[in-house]
């Protein structure tokens, strides 16, 4: 666990004093990598299409580029859903309906509610002391079903899903919507906790929220991203960080 001490990110409040905690879903609480792989495997097998590591990595590269463009506002989400598998099929020499395959994939993904280690226990503990909310760029029915089936849903009083709001992280409109749902709290009293430097840390920082980067893989912070106020490499570290007394939190 690291609580940054550089001049650029000095804060005069402990993470223990945030009354509202805004959690990203995929890659933070939900194990998207596992869910994605299992869902893809099932749908490829259903159609009798070849599926191996080369095809999987090719899909991930296509999908990653598409979502990066989506975050920048260059394309709409329906474009991702209608083209990513068709592009994969074209590159892999597979004859199939990419848009139809995507619909089957999303349904299969919604049936894979895997969580990151310690996620459920953490949220159950935190929900007794803080207001918890979800902030997700995912597909609405997929996220709602996975949150429910994972057991996480009862821990959260609010769900902010970009598909329902009409704007995504990291854009200001998403965080404006979040802040409007907490009229009694100034932005600096909300802490966003997530694994994405771009959508969670940069977006939250620009909106004036406190930021906590869940950096499971010890990646360097990308250039141009504001320094997060807090950084952890496990969910286990978040419990003490968020619940300990303010005086102890700075030791």
UniProtKB/TrEMBL annotation:
Signal peptide (UniProt feature, chain positions): none
Coiled coil: none
A molecular function (GO) term: 5'-nucleotidase activity
Protein name (record): Noncanonical pyrimidine nucleotidase, YjjG family
